[in-house]
């Protein structure tokens, strides 16, 4: 270990000994052209150790160096060298100096959509994580923070709008039909937050007055024809600005906030300082072209990017290992925002379902990854320092004094970014932040946030810094909580209960185990907050005043939770909690609100679960009880299916669904969630060997049985939830539509002419896409003439709107129609499809991978299709290709035939010429697992 670290010593010197000076302006100048763009950058560089001289290494990729000046003098060829990743100044001045670099870049040819690129005739940038190095040579790391000015010159008629971060301080005309602007951003920022947009755009304008009276101009930019579809985005932005003031006391800090919508974007959106750039899908909405789910996603993502202004931009990450510092926290903040704007329970249900469908399987496979890799750094640091007899705390100052450590971090970070474990960093990261709030309550959490900003505003910090702020603001004892950041894998929590009627005591015994994950064979116990209520036979919570635990009696406080919820702190491998004065055997409601991201096995009986479903004051756990029952039912039917036994639906389950459907006291959106079966992926994730055919057959069987037994109820639900009012995105209306649409989806499973007529009627009379698309989905389930006609009709109607057409692609791609891979191959040649547009790839190719029966087809046709697509896509856009190849990562979960078919495709991909690092990293990790 020590030897390999030493090997990096000479390489690392330059990076560490120089830094681009804090708080000085970085002057950028862009001359945008039709074939090439010139980028000039003027930066001030200071040696870290005054008077020392060693090479300065700057990052750069796909750049043509035009000129290089140090303190105004052109540098001679022998004083620098350029390779495919770096520009190295071999012996720069030993005192502070000015460095001017001119590069030439080709945004028109940039299909990777990182750095500066063109999209539908406009220029735009994407710099997180390592895109800035495709614009100019720079120390492309988040801890290098500076103030920026940006001058943009371009043809005035082609690019009338020229935007960058901060305030517009100058603009004017130039010769030859060109014009220029100068933007100045007064806040220090890392280069990943730099942004530039140029093109023919128009804006929807509004204003927001902050609570201290600052008047902020809000502008949402799109091509002129899309402007009417930005009303909901503007509403969402203003709501987010208000919410952050109300809940966290955080105000916006400039006089202008821009959002630009672009059609070609690798992900959802980007939080560049004062110039957020969005995938159009997450900005544009009208009742006719966007569903309720789209409206909700826009609200959440506009909120998310806005919230980054404080959690990400004002306080940023020291290095990319700390990504969850900003992303886990900001996802948590957007989840809370959406909860406050709609139904908290339903939002929590959606987020937990997402976690189970995507994060759990990843955390149990070859791509399992801690929220923040930690052990790696610790091992290296120990090897380095123990040799010198030094002991150094892992704090950010380490970066500035220890060259070897830094370089190792930089190399490994790159691989971390290439494999980008989104689910762990974002979704599990948000669960980790939620646990602080569960433990500290709202006011304790707010105190922690206040201290975090007080300590770290304007800094690049670590997850430990966030932890320390939460702990110190509350004087809290968080024992082994930090392990949540460093240990991968989903903990399994087992619970057994006993009631002693004589002593009137009730005991819960917990045991926990974290499964081994790649590189982490041995695990430590985690700190698991278990939110608990004990239900008496009347369905109400029994008051809990004290608990005997760890040899002492602890007094319980409720912490603002519902009913008599108490938070147990489970921190050891095995642990018992004993409750006194419990007059009858209670039914425990555990992990209320899903208080920790664990898999729980308990000794609750079916009768207990039905009781919780009917009575728990925690609505999340009512839903959860239904889901546990459904999972048990599905797994037992899967076993019957595999043994060729006839499938029979449990009548108790049927009555449970019927009673929820008919309970008018329940929120309609909650009913829609409660009668939705767990997804096929979730069930496969619970099996020893995943069997897509069995799981799909069982889920289809239950859906069909429920539809046929409850046909009249479902028809009544559809009919009684129609509305002739204009579309409103508010809770009563979206809840009504959710219930109507789930009823229609159940009915769509039936072979029944009258039902087809009903669905066609809904399709034709719908006044909004939410209802029209739901009817199309119902009709899509049965191959035949009606299906073909209605799909053709939908395309005819919406062919001019690429976002709606993407839904049409996805619907067909996800179809369970046997042999659907051939239809998908044909759709690749459809005039509306374009492999260079990520949204289209996600819809058609990603959509196909979402169909368990066709993607996992036993003839290997689905795997072969994906293998071919990955190789083609990788040449165009490695990030998108790497997302697609991830569909193979869990190949070992399937039977041997499928395993060998998937393995052959992974091998084929790895053998392809010129494979990108992105795809190589995921394909090779998957194969090696
Ligand atoms: N921060 C960006 C994501 C960037 C991902 C780069 N590979 C959007 C977000 O999470 O808000
Ligand atoms: Zn984010």
Automatic annotation (TrEMBL):
Residues 234-374, 424-481 form the Peptidase M1 membrane alanine aminopeptidase domain. Keywords: Aminopeptidase, Hydrolase, Metal-binding, Metalloprotease, Protease, Zinc. Residues 489-602 form the Peptidase M1 alanyl aminopeptidase Ig-like fold domain. Residues 35-193 form the Aminopeptidase N-like N-terminal domain. Residues 606-928 form the Peptidase M1 alanyl aminopeptidase C-terminal domain. SUPFAM superfamilies: Leukotriene A4 hydrolase N-terminal domain, Metalloproteases ('zincins'), catalytic domain. It holds the Pfam family Peptidase_M1_N. Its cofactor is Zn(2+). Belongs to the peptidase M1 family. This is Aminopeptidase N. It comes from Penstemon davidsonii.
